[in-house]
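pipeline/complex-builder :: batch 7 item 3
reading input block
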Amino acid sequence: MKKRNMSIGFAVPAFVIYTILLVVPILMAFYFSLNKWNGFNPMQFIGIENYINVFKDARLGNAVVNTTVISVVVVIAVNVLGLFLAMLVNTASAKSNIFRTVFFIPFVLSTVAISFVWKSILSYNGVLNGILISLGQSDLIGNWLGKQGPAIICIILVEIWRTLGYHMMLYLAALQTVPHELYEACTVDGGNRWNKFRNVTLPLIIPGMSVSFLMSIINELRMYDVVKIMTDGGPGYDTETIVYNIVSQGFSNSMVGYSSAISVVLFLAIGAISIFIVTMMNKKEVEM
Amino acid sequence: MKKRRALIALALSVCVIASSLMGCGKKADTGSTSDSGKTKITFGVFETDNITSEVWQNMIDSFQKDHPDIEVEKVLATGDDRQAFWKTMLSSGSFPDVVIEAEQLATMDGIFTEVPQDVQDLFEDSTLCQYNGKCITVPSFKQYKMQCYYNKSVFSELNLQEPTTWDEFMNVCQTIKDAGKTPLMCGGTGDIWATGEPFWIAEGDTALLAKYPDFNKDLKDGSNKWNNDTTIDVLSKWQDMINKGYYYDGAMSLSYSQAAEEFQKGTAAMMVDGSWAAAGFDAEKNEDFGVFAVPTMDGSKLTVADCSYWGVSETCENKDAAFQFIKYVFDENPDVYKEYLQSDGLYSTTKNAVTYEQGAVTTKFIDNIKDSETVQEIVKLPGENAAPSGMQSFMDKSFQNIFNGADVKTEVEGWDTEYQRLLDAQ
C-alpha cells in the first residue's frame, strides 16, 4: 500500500504538468470553438456553427490539400532516405560518426534560422540562381519562391533536409538492436542482401519504423515555421498549411472561436491518424 | 535512507513543476512601478529601416529626462504582421500601455481608453476619429502613399519625361521594355503587401474613391460591393501590365527590402512605393532617383494619405502617465515629434504643426500632389466604417494570385465574400 502511494506521489507531478499544459488548453480550445469570439470581447455561444464553417471553407480546403501534399512527400522521403542512410552509416566504420553528425545538424539548428538561410538561397537574386548564372546556366534560373509549383517543392525539400537526420537516427537506433547472429544465420541459409533486409532487418525495426512514421506525420501536419518564414503562405495561398491557416484566422482575422474549431478538428485528425498508424504497425509486427 | 532519497526526489519534482509554471501567468509582470519606485508604462512600437531603435530610444530618453518620475519601457513588435503581434500580446495579457498603429485594434470594443479632452485638443479636428461615439485614439502622423520612383539615368538615356496621364505612363513602360530593360519592380515572398498593395493604393483606392466617395460606408451598409466595374478595370489593367512583362521576372521571389535594393541597383527603372522611400533617399542624399505621382487611370486628382493612431490601453494602470507621455511627444517637445516625423517622411497631425527640412526627393514627392485632394486608404480608414481586421492581408494575397495569372473577376468576388465573413465574425 505504502509502495503504491509512493508510486502515485511520483506520478502526480507529471500528471499535473501534463494536465495544465496539454489537457486544459485542449479543453479550452474546444470551449472556444463553440463560441463566436475575437479573442478579447465577450464570447457569444453559437453551438457547432464554427464546425459547420470549417467544412465549407475553401481557403482551409486549400490549406488541407497543401498540408497533405507536403506531408505525404516528406513522410515517404524522410522514412525511405532515413532508413537508407541509417543502413549505410550502420555498416560503415567508426569514422562514419562524422556522417551521423553532418546529417543530424540541420535538425539541431533553429528552424527559424535555417528558413531564413534557405530563403536567401532561393530568392531570385539568391545563391542558387547566382551559382547557375556563374556556371553559364542562365536558362535554368528560377522564380523558386514566387510560383506555386516551385514554392511548394522548395518547402518540401527544405523540410526533408531539415528532418532527415532525425529520422536517420531513429532508424539507426532501431538497426542497432538487431542481433548480428541473425544475419549470420541468414547467410548460412544462403540468404542474399535482400533476404537479410526483408526477413531479418525489416521485422525487427518495425517498432522504430512506427515511431519514425508517427513523428514525421505529426511534425508535417503541424508545419508552420518554415512556411511562415520562407513564403508567408504565398504566393497567394499556394503554400498555406493548416496551422498557418489557424494562426491567420485567430490572430490576423480575430476569429479565435473559428480557429479553435479548426484546431480541434486537426487535433482529432492527428489523433485518428496516430491510432491508425500504431494499430497498423502493431499488426505488421505480429505478421512479420 | 530509501525514504530520504524518495523525499529528495519528490522535492525536486515539485521544484520542476514550480519552475515550469512560472511563465504561465496570465499577465507578464510589467508592473505599475519600476524597481526604483518610479511610475512605469510600457510602449509598444515597431522598427523599420527608417524608424530605427534610435528614434524610439531618443523619444523615451528625452521624456524620461524631463519626467524623471516616469519610466517608459519599450516593447518591440516583431514580424511583418504587427496587428497579429499585438493581438497575441492582448490574448496573453501582456498588451503594452501605449501602442502605436492602434487603428485596427480600436475596432474591437474595450481595448483602448477614451482620450481626455485636453489631449484631443492638441490635434487637428479633421484627423481625429471616433469608434462607437468615443475618441479612443490620437492621430500620430499623416503619411502619403504611393508614388512612382524612377531611375533618372534610365529616363535620361531613353529620353523619357515623367508621365502625367495613364497613357503616357504605359508608353514609358513600353519604351523601357522595348529598350531591353525592366520597367517596374515590386516585392513578393515574405512581404506579401509589396506585390500589389502599392499599385492598388495608387490606382484602385483613388479610382474607387473618385467614383464612390463613401465607399467604406457603402460597403458596410451593403449598397456597394468590391466587385464593381472600377475594381475589375483597375486590376485587369494591372494584370495586363504584368502579362506584357512590365514587372521584373523574379519579383515574387524577392522580399520588399530585396526589391528596393534591386531597384536601387538599376535592375528595374521604376518602383511604386510610399513616402518613406523618399525619406530613405534623402537620408542617404541619393539624388539618382526621381519621383512622380502615378497618373490615375480616370485622370482624377486624388492622392492617398493615411493617418496612423496611438492608443492607451484600457487596462493601463497609469493612464495619467501614459497620456503625459503622449502630450510630451506631440506637444511639449517639438524636437522629439520632429525627429519621429523626419525619420520616415511623415507629416504632423497636431494643431501646432511641426515641420522639418525636407530633402530633394521628399520635396518633389509633396510637390507632385500639391493640387490633389487627399483621401484615406480604403482598408485603413479608421472609425465606424473601418474595414474588418484581416481584409488587408486577404487582399494582399489576392493581388499575388492576380500577379500569377488568376482570373480577376473570380478573385474580386472573393473579396466580397471575405469582407462579409470577417465583418460577421468580428
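note: The longest strand of chain A covers residues 35-36.
queue -> next item
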